[in-house]
Design goal:
The protein is an alpha+beta fold. The chain has four helices and twelve strands, in the order βααββββββαββββαβ. The longest helix has 12 residues, at about 135-145. The protein is globular, with a radius of gyration of 18 Å.
Amino acid sequence: MFISRIEVDWAKARNPYDLHRAVWTLFPGQEKEPRKELDEERQGFLFRVEENHTGHKARLLVQSQTAPRIEGQGARSLGSREFDPQPSEGQQLEFLLTANPIKTITDQFSDTKPGKKPNKRGERKCRVPLLREEEQIAWLNGRLIDCAMVESVTVQPHPLLFFRDKRKNHGKLLTVTYQGLLRVTVPEILRSRLYNGIGPAKAFGCGLMLVRRV
């Protein structure tokens, strides 16, 4: 795995959808994520936005299977290093994670939404954000329950993240940043989570968990 510092021009960084597409251009030939199960190894990349100020280039950390090329379309690599996280049972780690904590509910208004289709089980579901801090912490614990124990955590909420896709559809996401301490219980599973990311909205800078020894 590689961790890289990436710079994205403001013309791309102003819309989170375009920012993601700009980072893709640093990995030419890489196909759309082929995974069918969450535990399969991720082929694409994860990223978190470190800085994104109006009118300036955005700074990102990108984790990927291969090293990025130096120059893409509106994005460039400032440097990479290879790494291979090897957590051990009982180890205490500091962590940092920006995520999109959500829950899935029955969509009572799906009939009013053009193009809204039921899932394979015929259910009409939708995702809604978790707004209360205790719900957001419970969501994190649920994502890590089989590989680590969260010993302490703070939750920093962010302003809603608005985006516009290539069909000019508008959307928004609620994101938060978790920071705290965890203790490893099942190293192999935690390693898989570090490689594959945690939770949804990975195309919008969510899911990359950074850890370091205490």
